């Protein structure tokens, strides 16, 4: 029997290392070409690696949780024939949410990423007997980890709709950390400090160390680099978004948008694209070259949407968002959100962004000073939309009010450009009819 060694490959995103998340095989198992053998996490995505060989698993050369460099051996497979076959070419299959696309076998996971370290038998099974829901809705609920029996249906026949499942998943993501953990059993402790001081005992129940890997490591490096290389300037403005809320309500009731999720983020995205066209320097980037610094102005918008996922912060972007109509943009936002939540965002979807929106309002936050995504000149935040007293024609009335805030690279754009951009976004949220031009 010939033994073959499989080394960690570069899965097409220029990575230098990856974490072994979960082995799908054990020594002695029989595998065929393209059987998934291991799940790895890179700085940008979860990837299931298929076997390039067929035979019997010999030794797992890297343990779960360890970080392995590209080119390092990770597994041996014994082949029954005398000659070792050449590694198989990567097999591509259509992505379920994108019939025209193709991805490496196993790109992403079938279930919620928050449970990726569990063995299949350990995953909780939610009952949904008696719940009225179509098969695609049941599949979506399984993918998002939603218990259908806990979802309030809004369908005309008492059925659970797609919007019901998505809303329930969003609420769960916001409130999952609302419980306050208990303090440790030890109220106080005295640690002697003799000379030389011995290592003090650590109460494992009071502290824990979390290795910085994958997305968290990439985010930390990117944010540190951005914060200390780009001089940030932040501005904000309060906005009467009542007409935006009215438009959202009308779009939700429109047959043309019946199968699309509509939210104020859609109007915010349209407003940003419109405002970027009016102030192109906001869509530029500072670039250091051998010939000196340059400002690169992009005449297209790859609109990034900051997404909080179980794996950490991701910023996938919608390519050429300026060319999309309102319905197309709504579909793109919905696809981006669901794909990120399911852990299926590809590396290509996270590169090439030109400007970013972060929707901090979904967490009940009013405003912030976000850090600019590397390679961009600005980021804008949409705060919570609440009913507040607002002066209209000399009278105080209840209105839907939000705060639009943003951070910008002062090397690229000056205060007047920043102010015009924020004012343009605010004007659209106050009067969406401006988009009709």
Q: What is the number of independent domains?
A: 3
Q: How does the helix and strand content classify structurally?
A: alpha+beta
Number of helices: 7
Radius of gyration: 25 Å
Total strands: the figure is: 20
Strand content: 25-35%
| Helix content percent band | 10-25%
Instruction: Output mean pLDDT.
Output: 79
Architecture of the largest domain, CATH level 2?
Answer: 2-Layer Sandwich
Biggest sheet statistics: 8 strands, mixed
CATH class of the largest domain: Alpha Beta
In the CATH scheme, what's the topology name of the largest domain? Chloramphenicol Acetyltransferase
The coarse silhouette is globular
Low-confidence stretches: 82-129, 174-178
N- to C-terminal separation? 71 Å
Q: Spell out the helices and strands N to C.
A: EEEEEEEEEEHHHEHHEEEEEHEEEEH
Give your account of this protein's structure.
The protein is an alpha+beta fold and 437 residues long. It has three domains: 2-104, RNA polymerase II/Efflux pump adaptor protein, barrel-sandwich hybrid domain (OB fold (Dihydrolipoamide Acetyltransferase, E2P), Beta Barrel); 123-175, E3-binding domain (Dihydrolipoamide Transferase); 215-436, Chloramphenicol acetyltransferase-like domain (Chloramphenicol Acetyltransferase, 2-Layer Sandwich). It is 23% helix and 27% strand. The chain has helices at residues 135-144, 162-175, 214-229, 242-253, 264-278, 326-341, 415-430, and strands at residues 2-7, 17-23, 30-31, 36-41, 46-50, 55-60, 67-69, 73-79, 92-95, 98-104, 232-240, 284-289, 292-297, 303-309, 312-314, 317-318, 355-358, 378-382, 386-392, 395-409. Strands 11, 14, 15, 16, 17, 18, 19 and 20 form an eight-stranded mixed sheet that branches. The radius of gyration is 25 Å and the shape is globular. The relative contact order is 0.11. The model is unreliable at 82-129 and 174-178 (pLDDT under 50).
